[in-house]
Backbone:
């Protein structure tokens, strides 16, 4: 048999000279790794939000019928948006809260710089102090907090109470009792007129 | 494998097949004559029961998939259609949903049995690790399956559990949010989420089946552990798997199926939540959301910790810690039967798991929260403190000389070493 001229360990370190086999191994192995990674990307990226989901970017809301003390919930990108017309007492309560008492010191307001402090001014609508517009999703694990309807329990701070794990938010939507780590997020929005808000 | 093959192909066709694909030889060696300790008790029958439950879930699941519509608007109605219109649909769906509970009941008993008798100790570490992997795949599969009816509990369970990943925002800002949106296929749980969970719910049982094959392979290298925890020393410590354990496993399986059938036919919704018969509503969270009973202990651990990232870490850690059990337990004795100190801690751990299950269903307030924290602390202390420390300081009771000795007594071992007496075919048949 002619097996004697085929080395038993073709890739052994004893063989210092690179052979044609070494070149083929590196070339084929490199192609397999790069090609595999390239083929994997479409398989993973297809799960990200698709074009039709991304196109649902803005929604307009009529707020003319929302009296002080009332609240409105609308959908934006599949999430509830809480719009609250706050009373003077609720505003005063939020303003009187020292920032040192807060769990999350940041405003979490998409319309402001990321490091803006969580003062009531930075949480409420610009120049429209009674209005509070927030994503109504608890920052703990995504439940919808109670507090929008008239008879709801609003928690010790008079804002919102999450029934899932007991997080409580104040009248500026700031988390006051955990386990939620962050204040309720404020989406990008603007007032088109006194009666109309554009969210997104 | 662990013992020499005793297969004798007698006919020409058997010899022909054996030379090409020795599948009959494998079945004969591994499932007919496989030497099995003669003293296995009924706690050892749950491996067979689990294999049966996996087959039930795959069979009922495949046919339910022929009628289920995985869309936001179609899912809930198609499940109701299965219940009302599809021939035998009610039976198939109840068998599948109750089957998930029975599957978990069996896997938890199987896991506690492994813990009690030290079945994770050398040389069975890989066997144990594969088992924990199966448990994790089962948890993922059950979670995804529970989302499919698209009721209120389905929807909010998906919301809460997928949001666990958003805790990574505390590590790298934005990472958790990106990851969660990738899982959702949107900015909230919705149609795309349901569709992908359905796809993966169909895939995972076959991954489980694959790991089960590895689990059985890893079992058949060292062979079964047994209630004494001591090694097989002579062939008379064992009996052939068939007929001794095929019959014992079969009897236990029938008893198990009686419980399964009683739930399916008389209390199919006993373990479920009425809220899941309300269609999913993304604008309203149910006032009291709880997972299925088999996830309650983990849910209690999640809620016991007031920090989001640490709570999620504890939830994951409570399962991942099982991977390290073979190295956390320092005792040289396998079976808890001979461990007078550890035994108390073991039963305290069982009580802890049941208590966490109870607390997971309660509102996280007041005493429930305090107790949840105490039991969570013990859950981790059992693995991280009790297992290493008690193993070092405990003086175990004397072990029997052989597997056969506690069964037949020392005289019987000397008198009749060659004949297994305990289970004669006429006694069990």
Residues:
């Amino acid at each position: 048999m002619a097996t004697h001229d085929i080395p038993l360990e073709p890739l052994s370190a004893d063989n210092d000279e690179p052979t044609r086999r070494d070149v083929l191994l590196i070339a084929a192995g490199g192609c397999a790794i790069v090609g595999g990674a390239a083929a994997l990307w479409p398989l993973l990226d297809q799960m990200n939000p698709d074009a039709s989901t991304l196109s649902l970017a803005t929604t307009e809301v009529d707020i003319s019928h929302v009296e002080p003390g009332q609240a409105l919930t609308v959908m934006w990108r599949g999430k509830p948006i809480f719009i609250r017309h706050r009373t003077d007492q609720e505003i005063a309560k939020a303003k009187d809260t020292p920032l040192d008492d807060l769990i999350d010191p940041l405003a979490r307001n998409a319309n402001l710089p990321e490091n803006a402090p969580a003062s009531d001014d930075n949480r409420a609508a610009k120049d429209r102090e009674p209005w509070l517009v927030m994503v109504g999703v608890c920052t703990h694990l995504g439940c919808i907090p109670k507090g929008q309807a008239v008879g709801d329990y609003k928690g010790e701070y008079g804002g919102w109470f999450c029934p899932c794990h007991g997080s409580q938010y104040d009248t500026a939507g700031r988390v006051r009792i955990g386990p939620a780590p962050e204040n309720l997020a404020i989406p990008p929005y603007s007032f088109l007129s006194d009666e109309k808000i554009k969210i997104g | 494998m662990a013992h020499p093959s005793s297969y004798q192909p007698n006919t020409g066709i058997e010899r022909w097949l054996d030379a090409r694909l020795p599948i009959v030889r494998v079945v004969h060696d591994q499932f007919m004559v496989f030497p099995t300790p003669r003293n296995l008790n009924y706690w050892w029958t749950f491996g067979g029961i689990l294999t049966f439950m996996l087959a039930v879930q795959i069979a009922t699941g495949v046919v339910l998939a022929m009628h289920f519509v995985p869309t936001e608007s179609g899912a809930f109605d198609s499940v109701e259609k299965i219940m009302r219109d599809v021939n035998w649909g009610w039976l198939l769906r109840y068998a599948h949903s109750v089957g998930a509970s029975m599957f978990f009941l069996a896997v938890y008993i199987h896991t506690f049995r492994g813990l009690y008798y030290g079945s994770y100790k050398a040389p069975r570490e890989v066997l144990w690790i594969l088992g924990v992997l199966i448990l994790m795949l089962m948890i993922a599969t059950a979670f995804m399956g529970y989302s499919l009816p698209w009721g209120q509990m389905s929807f909010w369970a998906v919301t809460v559990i997928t949001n666990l990943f958003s805790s990574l925002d505390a590590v790298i800002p934005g990472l958790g949010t990106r990851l969660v949106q990738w899982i959702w296929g949107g900015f909230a749980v919705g149609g795309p989420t349901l569709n992908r969970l359905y796809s993966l719910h169909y895939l995972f049982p076959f991954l489980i089946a694959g790991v089960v094959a590895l689990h059985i392979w890893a079992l058949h290298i060292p062979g079964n552990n047994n209630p004494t925890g001591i090694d097989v020393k002579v062939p008379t410590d064992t009996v052939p798997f068939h007929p001794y354990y095929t019959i014992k496993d079969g009897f236990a399986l029938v008893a198990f199926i009686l419980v399964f059938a009683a739930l399916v036919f008389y209390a199919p919704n006993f373990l479920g939540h009425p809220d899941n018969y309300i269609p999913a509503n993304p604008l309203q969270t149910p006032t009291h959301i709880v997972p299925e009973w088999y996830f309650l202990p983990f849910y209690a651990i999640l809620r016991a910790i007031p920090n989001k990232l640490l709570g999620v870490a504890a939830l994951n850690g409570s399962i991942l810690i099982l991977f390290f059990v073979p190295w956390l337990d320092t005792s040289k004795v396998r079976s808890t039967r001979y461990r007078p100190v550890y035994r108390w801690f073991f039963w305290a751990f069982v009580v802890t798991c049941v208590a966490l299950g109870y607390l997971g269903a309660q509102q996280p307030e007041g005493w429930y929260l305090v107790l949840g924290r105490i039991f969570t602390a013990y859950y981790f202390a059992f693995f991280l403190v009790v297992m290493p420390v008690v193993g070092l300081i405990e003086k175990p009771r004397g072990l029997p000389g052989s597997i056969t000795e506690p069964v037949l007594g020392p005289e019987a071992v000397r008198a009749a070493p060659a004949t297994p007496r305990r289970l004669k075919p006429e006694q069990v048949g």
Remarks:
- The longest strand of chain B covers residues 35-37.
